[in-house]
Amino acid sequence: MRIDVVSIFPSYFDGLTLSLLGRAQSTGILDLQVHDLRDWTHDRHRTVDDTPYGGGAGMVMKPEPWGLALDQLAGLPGAEPAARPTVIFPSPAGEVFRQSTARELAEREHLIFGCGRYEGIDERVFEEAATLGEVRLISLGDYVLNGGEVAVMAMVEAIGRLIPGVVGNPESLVEESHEDGLLEYPSYTKPSIWRDREVPPILLSGNHGAIAAWRREQQLERTRRRRPDLLDR
Ligand code: JDE
Hints:
Strand 5, helix 3 (99-105) and strand 6 form a beta-alpha-beta unit. It is built from eight helices and nine strands. The protein is 31% helix and 18% strand. Ligand JDE is lined by residues 89-92, 116, 119-121, 139-141, 143-148, 151.
């Protein structure tokens, strides 16, 4: 998979080249490239923002650098649909990012992430991007960040670990929270008594059927208490 990230703070993404995703990159499974939006400016001050038409607080990201960046990274408009990228902009006004979103995006050949800053990006950038590929505005949740960078790091990690070969043991992917729509069951390790706190005795019983049933019950109970919205879905 190819992933391009466009940001005015490219060094934010240094951490993504470490650990799990770092290995995927050195083995060639993932080609992750981070770009500085200012590389597509042509003025002395490398300007990426300007005042909003119609007035209002803050600054808006100018369309020209985004247009040039997307032209270069997406290839030709009207290319074979399979060769077209999915272009993702983190936005508090977007659709909510879920594990199902990560699964869907992990199937794509080419993702481009655009990190907005200031009060947003000129709306025409999204229209233009839609001529190059599928455009998705995606929100991590109902809160506001200063820019898209932290949201993109979270999405790249969630998507990247689902690419075949990135996580060593595929079983460790399915057992985790959200893959089956429930929260995880509690985990314990040695010692069996720590500061007078015992591990639930059933986990020491060796009765694998009873353990599986207990874990399922714990999952349902936790989900009901902490995330009842998941049971409705
Ligand atoms: C992501 N949940 C919250 C994005 C933006 C078009 C495109 C992007 C401060 O204003 C912002 C912040 C962000 C960063 O993303 C989030 C976020 N998931 O805050 C935009 C606006 N218009 C604007």
